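Appendix B. Chain record.
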Amino acid sequence: MFVLGELNREQIDKIKSNIKELGFFGSLPVFKKEDKIYLIAGHHRLQALKEVYGKDFEVKVEVEDYNEDQVFRGMVIENLTQRGRDFDETSENIQAVEDYLKEHSEVLTKVRGDSPRSSQFSHLKSIPLNEITANDVAEWIDKNTGKVLEKDVVINYMNINHNLDQSIKKQVEKKHDKNKEEREEGVNFTQAIILSGIKDHKEQKELAKVLNDTREQRVREQGKLITQYKQAPEEVKEQIKKSTGQKFFNCRTS
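C-alpha cells predicted for this chain:
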C-alpha cells in the first residue's frame, strides 16, 4: 500500500538538473514499521539521486514518528498535489483511498465522527462501514477543506470508477490541460462524467461513439442532451445512438 502511481519523468529531470548544479540539501522523511523502512515523501527526489549518484549513494534520512494512516495520507496528498492532475493517477489514488477505508473501519469511524457534518446529519452514522462515500474520501484526505481535492471532484471520479465501462475509461484523456490540437481521439473528462451517469455499459459505448463523432464540443450542450436522453422514450434513444456529427444535436428528446 506504500506505492501509489508512477513517477513523473519531467519532474525527476528538473530535480536532477538542480542536483547537478547545486548538490543535494536536506534529508528524506521515512517511516519504520517492524523491520522495514518506508519513504513518506520525496519519491521524485530519491529517484533523481539514484540517477545522478547511483544506487549506493547515501543520503540522510529523518525517521518520523508517524502511524500508518498518516503515512498513507501523506503519500496520497503528495501524489495529488505534486504530480499534476493526471486522470489515471487521480483515479487510482481515489480508488486506493476508498479501498483503504473499507479495510480500516476504525479509521472510517473516526473520519465520520470528526466530520463537521456528523452533528448536522444523523444519517451518517447509519451508513454501513463497507459503503464509502465521497464525503468520507474527501474528509480523510484533507478534513473537508477542499484544498487538495474538492468533494465534487471526488464524486465525479468515484462515479467514473464505479460506473464507467473500462474500455471507455481507458480512452479518457490523461491530462485536462491539452489544447484542441493536442487532444487525442477519445473521451474527455467531462464526457466521462456524463457517460458514467448511464447505467448500461453497452449504452455508454454507443453514446461515447456519438460524442466522439460530433464536431460540436460544447460539453454543456452534450450534458443537457444526455440528461434529456435518459428521460426519453426508447425510439428517441435509438435515434440518438444512431446519429453522428451535428445530427446528434438535431435530435429532439421532448
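Further analysis of this model is presented in Appendix C.
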